[in-house]
Structures are given as structure tokens and as C-alpha cells.
Amino acid sequence: MYCNTECASLGLGMTEMDASVVTLQRLAEKLNAECVELRRRQEHHGYIADMLIRERADERDFTEVR
Fold it and tell me: What ranges in 11-59 are assigned the alpha helix state H?
């Protein structure tokens, strides 16, 4: 991970980013949640990703919409 003088995150290398996404997906699976990568962009010193993690709806909780 790269930091500027205030240690604000500026991004991860591609290998680190891929490993982080895999870790988030594993954590989400253990929590019965979905992990979706919304976007990934390259900054000056690495990649930044926006992720959405949301709990899966109970399969018994069904609402029909017409």
C-alpha cells in the first residue's frame, strides 16, 4: 500500500488488489453476504476499488412484485 505524507491511502498494486478482493469475497461468504466490485480505477501509485457488500435476503423471505 502506498501513502502520501498524511498517510492517506493512494492505492494498491494489482497483485495486492486482487488478493484483497479475494479476501473480501471470502469474508462476505462467511457472513452470508454478496461482495460486488463496483469499479476499479488506477491512481498515481496504484489501484483503488469501490466494493459493495450486502447481506443476502433470506430465501424464505419472498415478496412477489407485479
Answer: 14-30
